[in-house]
Specification:
Length: 432
């Protein structure tokens, strides 16, 4: 089994470059199949397991996909199959994002239900409500969601009950090829939604308002392949920012965009961290002593749930009591037990974790419970006494390119040991 071994005590210094955003590239690759003519050339694509999975999904549908170095080319002008089977969706729930493009282009989509996962139940009701409002019939049964429509989808006014990133993206893609105008209200406002809208517009779509709570889409009859560069990964950037701060280091995170990271920057500054905007990114300078803070995760522009566990690692190094409240997912505290194995002083109270710092962290054997927990445990290992061994790296590989290698370049005492797969590992294990 692969593991990362970290020895605590090194300060991080230097420069690290972030990759293209996982949460932007997955919807963009899904959207590429909406083009019935022309090729899409996607740049700054990170070499992640999830990118391979979404590429496999659309290849299975008969799209031509070429993976190059940080580049993916998609030609979806062939007649596509309209089904995404369980073997793909179980690996990565973002596979459901092919539903909007398929339904809009072919009037049919059949996608396996992803099921629950490590961070919560993650329902799809808002995606389906959007498709139904546009005239689709939706059936859920035998482990699949099937949607179909006679003729084109019809533009509609849709109010989302919760600002869901995936539902906003899926319905926005469907509306791009629908007949007439669609107005989406109470949309998620994440930067990745803006990136997707920009790509759709390059393909010939007419989408305005992405990044605000109301998105207006004038449906068009046909979309074409387009060239697009993926935005930098704000969560990878944030993970390195936290790692720099907790080790009292001085790191330039190249590609980190202040505009995408304001909530994290504000909280880190409250903790005493210096963050400077430079031409190439954000410089993070850790203080001698970190101060405790309270943080609540919220949809963008609030504090991102995908930074919750890394923030917990930073709080463990702060003086005093911090409270971290998770409001987006109901079960995203699995890493707490692992942190406890490292002697962290943490208490779960409902949807909050009370963090008593500074914890006297000790190296231990820990297992990643989801991809952000993997990063958080490694970050905690950077400031623990002795050696921390982190396993279940399949989670890490979904969302981080060469995380250990990049930390090592910054001065961390860290190694990744690749061992032959154990007999316990199932090849198609559910990982999201
Ligand atoms: C590939 C990708 O971009 N993943 C991100 C995306 O996931 P994802 O798009 O799955 O997350 P959502 O924004 O949809 O989920 C937000 C909340 O809405 C709820 N909900 C969602 C859909 C729905 O139909 N009904 C419903 O109730 C969810 O249970 C959750 O409580 O946004 C999450 C929230 O920022 C991030 O943690 C994930 O990293
Ligand atoms: C939860 C995450 O991703 P996904 O929605 O792909 O599971 C994440 O990126 O932290």
């Amino acid at each position: 089994m692969d593991k990362i071994i970290v020895r605590g005590g090194s300060q991080l210094n230097g420069t690290v470059k972030v990759e293209g955003a996982k949460n932007a590239v997955l919807p963009v690759i899904a959207a590429s199949i909406i083009a019935s003519e022309g090729k899409s050339i996607l740049k700054e694509v990170p070499a992640l397991a999830d990118v391979n999975t979404i590429s496999e999904v659309i290849r299975h549908m008969n799209a031509d996909v070429t993976l190059g170095e940080n580049q993916v080319t998609v030609d979806a002008s062939n007649q596509l199959k309209t089904e995404a089977p369980f073997e793909y969706v179980r690996k990565m729930r973002a596979s459901v994002l092919v539903m909007g493009p398929l339904l809009a282009r072919y009037g049919h989509a059949k996608v396996a239900l992803p099921g629950g996962c490590a961070i919560g139940s993650r329902p799809l009701d808002q995606h389906l409500k959007g498709f139904e409002a546009m005239g689709a019939k939706v059936n859920v049964g035998n482990g699949y969601i099937e949607a179909f429509t006679e003729g084109r989808l019809k533009g509609a006014r849709i109010y989302f009950d919760v600002p869901s990133v995936g539902a906003t993206e899926n319905v926005m893609m469907a509306a791009a090829l629908a007949e007439g105008k669609t107005v989406l209200e109470n949309c998620a406002k994440e930067p990745e939604i803006v990136d997707l809208a920009n790509y759709l517009n390059k393909m010939g779509a007419k989408v305005i308002g992405a990044g605000t709570e109301t998105i207006r889409i004038e449906g068009v009859e046909k979309l074409y392949g387009a060239e697009h560069t993926i935005i930098p990964d704000r969560i990878e950037a944030g993970s390195f920012m936290v790692a720099a701060a907790v080790t009292r280091g001085n790191v330039l995170v190249k590609g980190a965009e202040m505009e995408h990271l304001r909530s994290l920057v504000a909280k880190m500054e409250e903790m005493g961290v210096t963050i400077q905007e430079e031409a190439e990114g954000l410089r993070v300078i850790g203080p001698e002593k970190l101060k405790a803070v309270d943080v609540k995760t919220m949809p963008h522009p609030g504090f991102p749930t995908d930074m919750q566990s890394q923030m917990m690692a930073l709080m463990l190094g702060a003086e005093g009591t911090s409270v971290l409240t998770e409001t987006v997912f109901e079960n995203r505290f699995m890493h707490v037990e692992e942190f406890r194995r490292m002697n962290a002083q943490l208490k779960i109270e409902g949807r909050s974790v009370i963090v008593e710092g500074p914890s006297d962290l000790q190296g231990a054997e820990v297992a990643a419970t989801d991809l952000r927990a993997a990063a958080a445990l490694i970050i905690a290992g950077l400031v623990s006494e002795g050696y921390t061994r982190v396993t279940e790296l399949k989670h890490l590989d979904r969302g981080y390119v060469n995380f250990a290698g990049k930390l090592k370049q910054l001065g961390a005492d860290i190694e990744r040991i690749d061992e032959a797969p154990s007999t316990e590992t199932q090849p198609n294990e559910i990982i999201s």
